[in-house]
Amino acid sequence: MGEKLLMKGNEVIAEAALRAGCRHYFGYPITPQTEVAHYMAKKMEQIGGVFVQAESEVAAINMVYGAASAGVRAMTSSSSPGISLKQEGISYSAGAELPMVIIDIVRCGPGLGGILPAQCDYFQMVKGGGHGDYNLTVLAPCSVQEMYEVVVGAFNIADRYRTPVVVMGDGYLGQMMEAVEFRDEEPIAKIDKSSWAACGHKMEREHNTITSIYIEADVLEAHNNKLQAKYREIEKNETRVEEFNCEGADVIVTAYGTVARIVKNVIKDAEKEGIKVGLIRPITLWPFPSESYAKYADKVKGFLCVEMSTGQMVEDVRLAVNGRNTVDFYGRTGGNVPSQSAILEEVRKIAAKKK
Known about the structure:
single chain, alpha/beta, 2 domains, globular
């Protein structure tokens, strides 16, 4: 690893992408992620890459579709309403099996909402905001350093499985500055894309065709089955989670992103009151780390899911627990962030239950 630098989260996203070999960026400015585009606009010119500020979010995602079709590493970034506009293109990209990285720095909703941080994009990213039977791999970092690691990893996953990969953070993570340590060099895997990419063939092989449309029912069903088999492989190989202080816990709190950082302080506060609290932090929101919840389902008094939303990830937590224990929810919206004191009060209520 090299020297540590103090950098803003959004700038680290862009720098990580460049170090991972991304030389094609297409986007449209929207707070609170615009610094990603600013950084790319400056750096791409210096290194001979391609930066395009598209005329809209719809145009941007389709430009990424085109670049990815040629087999190059490509990325776009946006925030909640912009991501909503990209959903049709994202569904096309999943159907066409195109590797790409999509950054979503979440703001409040619904509608235009506000520029303060939130986690209300969980459904549209994790459950698939576009049409069709598909999944996006969704990574949720909780620090600026992890932003770097996750973005680099996102490109590798995208190429390995030919699939769109999302990195989802909230406005705090995009705007905060923390020390980050970059590796001196990122080993970029040489993956042969000639079997599918539309990258020129000099009449030496059959044409490659990129498409997501299959008219015949049986043909489309076979394609869907192929996609589902790929998603099972991603679930098997790429699920990531942090389990913190869970052994012997009275209560397990689950949270991701910025909220997980707050929960770690709650754990210290609860310990002073004799309550042992664990944390399950999904790093992949999809594939969801269900086994971590099943493992502790019968061992704690209850689970508490804390989100900056009205309750979206809580549905996956309840599915993972599968009725074997209670799953309570606490959330704030509108750009408000759950406080340590409020989370601790919810923990006290669960800890007071008879096991």
